[in-house]
Amino acid sequence: MEDNQTTSFTISVDLYGHSPATARELPEPDIHVITSGALRIPAHASVLASVSPVLENIIDRPRKHRSSEKVILILGVPCDAVVAFVRFLYSSRCTEEELERFGIHLLALSHVYAVPQLKQRCTKALGERLTIGNVVDVLQLARMCDAPDLYLKCMKLVAGHFKAVEKTEGWKFLQDHDPWLELHILQFMDEAESRKKRSRRHKEEQRLYLQLSEAMECLEHICTEGCTSVGPHDTEPTKKKGPCSKFSTCQGLQLLIQHFATCKKRVNGGCLRCKRMWQLLRLHSSICDQSDSCRVPLCRQFKLRLQLDKKKDDARWKLLVRKVVSAKAISSLSLPKRKREELQETHNHGIGSFRLYN
């Protein structure tokens, strides 16, 4: 009882989050909030009702006896958490210390009594204070209190550190008392892993399409300007010819062209490297829109063959062509306007073939 009197005295001075002079200007309290520890917190019905629609309904509820005292029972949470809650209703302020000590309790109270400002603050504070040890408890509370942002943050932490989380007491309690939430967590982890795999696969595919797009640019570059060891058949090699800006790709393509030009197995179709070169030439023909003036070998022939052939390209090849065209467009947009114009001018030449430089 002595402890309650001491706490009540402190509340009378500091309850409303204002200075003592401001607090004295308020009318006499007309209602009391009673906690689990039998603490009586004086309050004003008009203030509580204006902030919380739930408290307003409780206050307006008819009493059994008109002479009975107006009280609101807030049970099941620490007395100091209720004090912090009532103080927030008056001042819209909550200290970091209170959030540290009573964040979970204040989130529950803000949800039950529909105080969105406090709920937002508690959600943010709890999200910043998540640990392996408390994440399961906060996750359960976030679900019950309809706090989706906090819930998702907890799920991501559990998924990212599951081996550590499953050793905690909170996880063991969850397994015994809430199997549906456990199942949902495991499903979330499975979906997250599937998303990661899809993302990795998509990045790998995009990287492949960009590499093919770059190979198409290098093929046009070799056939129109020439590079270090391969160039157009009607152009004399220059001794000062240096590596181009995409020499890593260009060099590999030049080696492939040199092999293609001299391979004995190519005629019989028994060389994998030659097949790869045929595919690159076919891919170029499929995306080239200037076949009449294109200097890449066999570009026009591939297009004529496609027109004469009754069987159209298969769906997978068409998809590949679209992806490479898209990658080429994205790559060209990243270039300066002058460079794009220079690339466009390289098409204005006659049909030719390769020359291997000595």
What is the compact description of this entry?
The chain is mostly helical. It has helices at residues 2-14, 20-25, 45-51, 53-60, 79-91, 96-112, 116-128, 135-144, 148-160, 162-165, 169-177, 179-224, 247-262, 272-287, 299-308, 315-333, 337-345; strands spanning 31-34, 40-43, 71-73, 230-232, 354-356.
Structural features:
single chain; 358 residues; mainly alpha; Potassium Channel Kv1.1, Chain A; CREB-binding Protein, Chain A; 2 domains; 3-stranded mixed beta sheet; two-stranded antiparallel sheet; 5 strands; rod-shaped; disordered N terminus
Description:
InterPro entries: BT1/2/3/4/5, BTB/POZ_dom, SKP1/BTB/POZ_sf, TAZ_dom_sf, Znf_TAZ. It holds the Pfam family zf-TAZ. The chain has helices at 2-14, 20-25, 45-51, 53-60, 79-91, 96-112, 116-128, 135-144, 148-160, 162-165, 169-177, 179-224, 247-262, 272-287, 299-308, 315-333, 337-345; strands at residues 31-34, 40-43, 71-73, 230-232, 354-356. It has 358 residues and is mainly alpha-helical. It has two domains: 1-129, Potassium Channel Kv1.1, Chain A (2-Layer Sandwich), CATH 3.30.710; 208-356, Up-down Bundle (CREB-binding Protein, Chain A), CATH 1.20.1020.10. The strands form two sheets. Strands 2-1-3 form a three-stranded mixed beta sheet. It has a two-stranded antiparallel sheet with strand order 4-5.
